[in-house]
Amino acid sequence: xxxxxFLIFLGLQIVxxxxxxxxxxxxxxxxxxxxxxxxxxxSIYVKLLSKYSLEANYTRIVTVLNEKGNKHTNTMVGxxxxxxxxxxxxxxFDKEGKSIKKIKKKDFxxxxxxxxxxxxxxxxxxxxxxxxxxxxxxIKFSYQSKTKNTGNIxxxxxxxxxxxxxxxxEYTIEFAETALKPIILEKNFGEYGISLKETNNSISYVLKNxxxxxxxxxxxxxxxxxxxxxxxxxxxxxxxxxxxxxxxKEAGFWMNxxxxxxxxxxxxxxxxxxxxxxxxxxxxxxKAKIIYRYIxxxxxxxxxxVGIGGLRPISAVEVDRLKYGDCKGLTNYTKALLxxxxxxSYYVHVEAGEDKIDFxxxxxxxxxxxHVILAIPHKGKYxxxxxxxxxxxxxxxxxxxxxxxxxxxxxxxxxxxxTESYLDEQNLQTTKSNYVINERGDISGDITIITNGxxxxxxxxxxxxxxxxxxxxxxxxxxxxxxxxxxxxxxxxNRDSVLFKESLKVKADRYASVSNNNLIFVATPFNNxxxxxxxNRNRVFPVEISRGFLDCDEYEIEIPGNYTLESLxxxxxIETKFGEYSLNFxxxxxxxxxxxxxxxxxxxxxKSDYNPYRIFRRNIAKLDNSKIILTKKI
Length: 634
Prior knowledge:
Blueprint lengths: L1 H20 L7 H4 L4 E14 L2 E12 L11 E4 L3 E11 L5 E5 L5 E4 L11 E4 L9 E11 L8 E2 L6 E12 L7 E5 L7 E4 L3 E9 L11 H4 L2 E5 L2 E4 L2 E4 L3 H12 L8 H10 L6 H15 L1 E2 L14 H7 L1 E2 L1 H14 L5 E5 L20 E8 L2 E5 L19 E6 L2 E6 L9 E10 L5 E10 H7 L7 H11 L6 E11 L4 E10 L4 E3 L2 E5 L20 E3 L3 E10 L4 E5 L4 E5 L2 E10 L2 E10 L2 E3 L4 H15 L2 E6 L2
Parallel strand pairs: 1-10, 17-18, 24-31
Antiparallel strand pairs: 1-2, 2-8, 3-7, 4-5, 4-8, 6-7, 9-14, 10-13, 11-14, 12-13, 15-16, 19-20, 19-22, 20-21, 22-23, 24-25, 25-27, 26-27, 28-29, 29-37, 30-36, 31-35, 32-37, 33-34, 34-35
């Protein structure tokens, strides 16, 4: 009996401290302040057992403090025929650290990682779905994965996101022999106090007790400011091929002669069809445009979650048969069609997204990049196309892949090159309007908007929207105008010049305020910038304006014949290192002409520049609200 009592006591000593450790009350106030979630433990232990065997043991324990923190549970993992999830589980704990639910492997939802298409049926995701009833709660998620592919070793972000605190995060890699030791790049370590422990066959990084970091307007991308590791294998095996990579030239050569080899073969009938399609066309660029148009009109894009679909494209024959593919498959297929008509092109790996993220030039890694596009050399320059887009003009890649360093793969090796940049004044929007204001304060008139560069990218998709969506778009775009009616609109999309023209007729009742014998109205109704960055008293990060632009506006306002001009704003001009703004007025008879120019310059600025930039934008907002006052003739 005494022995049994002792065993029960010992069991309580073992269980209760474990539960107590996950109690939300054990989190220091310093870590709770300003946080939506706290990462209690986030770790991965990677074992390179051999060139042909990689094992990863992953653990993530998160205490969610409120509804906004739910997105940080991240209880999901992808797999395919090359990645086996040998163990997976999740467990939910209440605020006191007591277990309230266990989720076994059979309880995880197993779903396709693609949005349709049998070509990628092996790409799947396991995830645990939990709907919390109370806050805070804690979730523990862990899995073990095994793969024969050692060419893409998991890298690591030490910090999840903004407004998330971290108690402990650890990355460890163990390698069976020195020849398997990867190159590890330490990025943005700063003063975070990350500790490193290295032995003959392992490397381990640990970071503890980092309080939540506030997000900031106009900061650089997380990739540039938060601590992370890039893990680059040197000797590896990937998708059936052995490899040794020391630089990007070797990486490109290996990819071209292994992953891409023979994947661009086509049936004779398809080759004949492509040759017939470009019959009579001698210029290679014109041939490329015809092939690109064929791709846009005859294929569709299937999204495969990054990290699951692998690096080897589906064969061109398969894509040709089914007429769909992911970015790798469609790019490889387009490359094959161009080859069929004797047009050279290069397969390109890129880190795509609104944030411009460059490939690291000094260290090669198969893990860099999340998208594939195509480069076509012609007369000393590259023309870039995104083969997943059914709407972008030839040679225009827009904000998704512009202005960043990418890996271009040639038969003799890889090169780091930069994609097309759309700089400041090239991102031009010209707005012209002739409108009439009557004595009731109603306005009506014509508007023409012409956009180029990245501003084209933001407008040209309008032509594909239903009429109701178009009307709602303009009412939102000109939300400063009450009672707006869109009477008509016509679009012209010049794909060769990459220019989009919008021609509209509009009216708005009671746009001007009527006060006694006065009409009072804002001078710049159709491009009125009220953006003012929110206040940051203790700025941490540099200021980054990732894309500049130029707006040029011209309005001619016809005033009622029985009114005279009472007050006109003064002409204004502001010039700073961030850009330039001007607002000018002219009058003739019953016409007021308003010209406006706003140039914002892209660039990275000191954190101390944030307030001066904020003042610049505040002054613009004030001047854009300048009022014209008309007085009724007596």
